[in-house]
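Worked Example 4.2. Read the sequence first, then its structure tokens.
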Amino acid sequence: MVNLQAHPDFPPSDAIAVSVAWNGSADGILAPTFTVEDWSIVRIPDPVPPVRTDGLWKTTCFELFLRSEGADGYFEFNFSPSGAWAAYAFDGYRAGMRDLDIAPPVIAFGSGRLEVTLDLASLPGGAWRAGLSAIIEDRDGAKSYWALAHPPGKPDFHHADCFAIELPAASGA
């Protein structure tokens, strides 16, 4: 399990903690579980069918970024407690963004956590650098920004400093 850190310029309004546990397998399945210490203060989007949706970062949302070792391009995945999701491919830092053609993730929200099952078998295999992040909107509308590491300045989950975990090679297409 890893703990995410709140961005120093956007701390949470109440004392909470955000953590992520990893589950995965050699068949290209990655299954992060995001936990928030106190969901009672979090604004949770209303449930929707599991559909690809842009703009999830505008409210409570959890994110995974993956980049192959030494590559400029990367992938971004967004998961909402509502059940909505998004997946994008980038050619480089915030450049060449497009929808990523990937199987929809399975998202389960309850019991104080958001469990995601993501099939990465269609992505290139090899070792990855990963970034984990969260936008937590409280019931008053204030947002805190959480990541493994934060670069200087405003919150920027796309920044190379945020790709702070190494994942071993798993099979892919």
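Now turn to a second chain, presented in exactly the same format:
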Amino acid sequence: MQFLNKIRQIWQIKDLRNKILFVFVMLVIFRIAAHIPFPGVNVANLKDFFARNEMLGMLNVLSGGAMSNFSIVAMGIAPYITASIIMQLLTMVIPKLEELSKEGSAGRQKINQYSRVLTVPLALVQSYGMLMLLRQSSSTVVGDLSFFNIANILIVMLGGTMFLMWLGEVFLF
């Protein structure tokens, strides 16, 4: 009974209620996006492929099931996390970035902007790697991979990553 009273008290605080609803809506949006597969991908063969490969099955679990559908958000925000880590390491090595980090909020915002820019090439490289992994592992999952199809898949995966990154930033601010 005490637990329900605490939940009721939390729900009565308008700001907190709005944040909880916002997070719920963002989760629903992500789950919907995670079920939108790329055209030309044999989803049944892909699910069978992930069921047979334990390592990729674990990656699929970590991606929220987006990889087993080869969805538009299959990359998640992994490229952004990688870019953030790289920028943190570069901050310790490059004096100009170290100065920026010591400038306070404005400097951190500039470093975050650099991280977002670095996310683009990282997302392209990681999505190409994922595509080639699927192509080598099972030729029945992805069909014809002409230059146009590869470019299309890479751009859509980049867009999915940037969309998730934007969702995360909307939540933070």
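Notes for the reader: The chain has a mean pLDDT of 83. Residues 105-137 form the longest helix (33 residues).
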